[in-house]
TrEMBL record:
Pfam families: Esterase_PHB (PF10503). Its EC number is 3.1.1.-. Belongs to the carbohydrate esterase 1 (CE1) family. This is Carboxylic ester hydrolase. It comes from Podospora comata.
Length: 292
């Protein structure tokens, strides 16, 4: 869950245009005092899409801004990027906290939703095109956000994460926490995993976010079984089953797992890939429907 390689990047990277990452104060209800950073390209689309990008443990929103090429794609396509940042729990998200695992329960998840609502209102964003992605702890939180707030997110993409509520009941969800059962590949049935999602928002019968799960098969910090469990969870929630596997997508190291027709759920496993972001931005944005 630590992402030390990001630490060498500039905290406030700037594109070739004039836009830069900016901190936003007073964005709304913020029960855990997390921080909001936002990237608004110089040329914003009408009713722009919004992507929430969640950093790993030990990282910050500013560092994650430099961790992928999403800002350059925002420049090209006019969508807005939100970079939440937590100073708590060794800069790890509270994916174990009942507050974040409960719809409108508060926690880090509640603060992130405030950021989304602020951005939708301030920039006249498209409420049908709000997405979430993240790596490691951010990947775990991606699944939490999709499970606790299905009405907010159209799709999510989790890299090196764990299933929604996998850390429920643990005292913490950092690499230093005593209980690492989840990160080592806690196994449950698809129905049990699906129940965690449904119980986070009892009575909700609306559309569920489409999901993309990516993991390295050589990851020893967050075991690849975690991705298998997340895929079991979302296959149950979304009502789709594995139909085929495709070698060499999006690159030679990866195998794509397609559920149903692939529009609702996909998985990617990288041979020889360890605990690394492995973000292929074009694959991500195509799955989100933001580029052709």
């Amino acid at each position: 869950m630590m992402f030390k390689s990001l630490l060498g990047f500039a905290a406030m990277a700037q594109t070739a245009f004039g836009a830069s990452l900016q901190q936003v104060q007073n964005f709304g209800n913020n029960p855990t005092r997390i921080q909001m950073y936002i990237y608004v390209p110089d040329r914003v689309a009408t009713n722009p899409a919004i992507i929430v990008a969640l950093h790993p443990c030990g990282g910050t929103g500013q560092q994650w801004f430099s961790g992928t090429r999403l800002p350059s794609f925002a420049d090209q396509n006019g969508f807005i990027l939100i970079y939440p940042s937590t100073p708590n729990q060794s800069n790890c998200w509270d994916v174990h906290n009942p507050a974040s695992l409960t719809h409108n329960g508060g926690g880090d998840a509640g603060g992130i939703i405030s950021m989304v609502n602020y951005t939708l209102d301030r920039y006249k964003g498209n409420r049908e095109k709000v997405y979430v992605m993240g790596f490691s702890s951010g990947g775990m939180m991606t699944n939490v956000m999709a499970g606790s707030y299905p009405e907010v997110f159209e799709a999510g993409a989790a890299y090196s994460g764990t299933a929604h509520a996998c850390f429920a009941g643990a005292g913490g969800a950092t690499p230093f926490s005593s209980n690492q059962t989840c990160a080592q590949g806690l196994q449950k049935t698809p129905e049990q995993w699906g129940a965690f999602v449904r119980n986070s928002y009892p009575g909700y019968n609306g559309r569920r976010p489409r999901m993309m799960i990516t993991h390295g098969n050589a990851d020893t910090l967050v075991r690849p079984q975690c991705a298998t469990e997340a895929l079991k969870q979302w296959s149950n929630v979304l009502g789709v089953s594995l139909t085929r596997q495709v070698q060499g997508v999006p690159s030679s190291q990866f195998t794509q797992h397609i559920y149903g027709d692939g529009t609702k759920l996909q998985g990617f496993f990288g041979n020889g890939v360890g605990h690394a972001p492995s973000v292929d931005e074009q694959t991500l944005l195509r799955f989100f429907g933001l580029i052709a």
